[in-house]
Amino acid sequence: MIIKLLSVHIPAFWESIKFTVKEADEVDEKDLQPYLNELLHALLNDKAQCFVHLDDERRLTAMLISRITEDRVTGDKCMLLQCLYSWQRQPDAVWQQDTDFIRQFAIKTGCKYLSFTSRNEAMFKLGEKIGFTERYRTFEHRLDERG
After folding, report:
1. Tens-digit pLDDT profile for residues 44-72
2. Tell me, what's the pLDDT at 15?
3. Helices in 25-111 by DSSP H: which ranges?
4. Residue 36 lies in a domain
5. CATH number of the domain enclosing 79
6. Domain boundaries, position 71
7. Does residue 119 lie in a domain region?
8. In this structure, are residues 51 and 66 in contact, taking their beta carbons and an 8 Å threshold?
């Protein structure tokens, strides 16, 4: 079962959220605290959403953090799936059910599409299995003081 946490429930799940972010978002250690501070603020103010998947015994098995963004050119709203982490391997059917739930939430909030970024090959494959298509790739070149 997947549920959307209300902002009042975020503190109870904060340790799991921090773990999820550390594992899934791969934030540099030096940037982690400001990243977590911004995320906590966004979750408590409903600027970001946290969805949890619970098994039949109501144990946490997966977590998703999302944000609703807007395309600056088209004005279309998009639900950005910011990070996803699973403590247990889930069957494809469970991922599909969870995605259907997320899709319905996105539609209710006026989103035109779902989006995620990742550098994890398993996430690419999962995304394709549940109906995502690759839109573009992003590359970066880090600069130091020397350029």
Report:
1. 999 999 999 998 899 999 999 999 999 89
2. 96
3. 29-44, 92-108
4. yes
5. 3.40.630.30
6. 2-129
7. yes
8. yes
